[in-house]
Amino acid sequence: MRIARAVRSDAEGEEGRALFERIGAFLVDQRLAPTPTNYAFAHRLFTEPDDALARAVELITERGVRITPRDIQTLTDDHAADSDQPSPAQLKAQTEGLVARTQMQVEGFADMVTAMRAETADFGRDLVASAEAISTGEDAPHAVDDVVRITAAMLDRIRVAEDKLESTTREANELREKLEEARDNARRDPLTQLPNRRAFEEAFAAQEAAGGQMCIAVCDIDHFKSVNDRFGHAVGDRVLRVIADALSQCCRGHLVTRYGGEEFAILFTNVPLDKARAVLEFARGTVQAKRYKLRDNDAPLGEITFSAGLTPVEPGEMHQTAFHRADRLLYLAKHEGRNQVKTGSASYSEFSRGMA
Hints:
Blueprint (H helix, E strand, L loop, with lengths): L1 H28 L6 H12 L4 H10 L7 H16 L3 H49 L3 H46 L11 H14 L3 E8 L2 H8 L1 H18 L4 E6 L2 E7 L3 H17 L16 E7 L6 H17 L5 E3 L4 H4 L5
Parallel strand pairs: 4-5
Antiparallel strand pairs: 1-3, 1-4, 2-3
Helix pairs in contact: 1-2, 5-6, 8-9, 9-10
């Protein structure tokens, strides 16, 4: 037994030393300090090579790009968030489960109220009978005892009901919070944390019902496919987050959503078209002015820009109609050189001639 343990210990020691050497070589190659954070990051890469984090690092480094401490923090946060982010099917199942629990709780409330009403009626009949017995003098001592007994039973039942009501109310509050969280998750893009297409459509409907001026902008990152092809999807995801942050900051006070892929939709409310355009132009210039670089040698990633179509929403107009018009204006902006904002309320036939 001692020999077996010694052999196993030696084998484990060799594996540990080999892993340690691989981690050390990785840190040296990436020019990373041997800090606990960096070591833990590298340890995960080598012990979980099929993990999404390891694949993301491989995409970044396959072209000679080195990982920086900031990349480590971003990647760790992103993949921790991704692992916690439920899929659409999971979100649906969770929501359905919460709805079912809520329905059961409502039914429980109803059952509790029905039972209390029945018991109250019984208590009332017994009290009336005891009161009549006391007033007529028939077996008065026993009637008084009955009143005391009935009153004590009522008090005990009230205390039980209060405890159950308190517990049920607490559970109802927890369910309400979970339902609100599930509702929010169903309307939020997990990568950029922006509201999604569903949230955009609901906000449009709510604003239409409330009245007031609206404009819709559709924005699309220029040459985004080439970013993914040249540098990998991990870099592409970071570009999406950068654009999302820039649009959110520059268009503060208006709804910025990730509509799908590299496309963003913005709902401007209670501002005229020229004001919405000025805000969008500022956002476009902010994105263009940023300098995106590869980490190891500061080699430029290349200019990142976006094109946009912006249109006012006509009174009573469906959001699909206005969105389609903004999308055609976006296409016109792409056709005429990209990195620009096209505005207008013209019909498709009026501005589509510009693309002929």
